[in-house]
Specification:
There is one protein chain. The chain is α+β, with helices and mostly antiparallel strands and about 120 residues long. The chain has helices spanning about 5-10, 15-30, 40-45, 65-75, 105-115, and strands at about 5, 15, 50-55, 80-85. It has 2 domains: about 1-40, no CATH class; about 50-120, no CATH class. The protein has 5 helices and 4 strands; from the N terminus they run E-H-E-H-H-E-H-E-H. Helix 4 (about 65-75) links the parallel strand 3 (about 50-55) and strand 4.
């Protein structure tokens, strides 16, 4: 098809083929790599020493806490601040993968506070 019909299937929205190939590669191998590029994402993560705000969406079955654990383990030198996000708007499906996008009162204040605490 050349694209993922997520709008019809109820998962992921409509996505180009390259995005689906990247998603499937990460799921199969546990490694981040661009399909045709040469940039070494794994090495960049391993060398990264900057600040990271990692926000776990509580109850998210598509990106559970263990997935974030695995991602953060790839950046052992990073200075990590970790937050648990629970939807403040009382969505019918708490923990749904993208609830934070529409919940500006829930997650935005935490992001703003974290940014203000940085010396950027």
């Amino acid at each position: 098809m050349g694209w993922w019909p997520g709008d019809r299937l109820g998962f992921g929205g409509r996505q180009p083929e390259a995005v689906i190939r990247d998603w499937s590669r990460v799921v199969r191998t546990g490694r981040y790599a661009a399909g045709t590029g040469t940039f070494d994402y794994e090495a960049a993560l391993a060398d990264y020493r900057g600040a990271v705000l990692a926000i776990d969406v509580v109850g998210d079955v598509l990106a559970p806490r263990t997935a974030m654990d695995a991602l953060l383990a790839k950046a052992p030198r990073a200075r990590v601040t970790r937050l648990d996000y629970i939807p403040s708007r009382g969505e019918a499906e708490p923990g749904a993968h993208l609830t934070w996008v529409r919940d500006r009162d829930g997650v935005a204040p935490a992001i703003v506070a974290w940014l203000r605490s940085r010396s950027i």
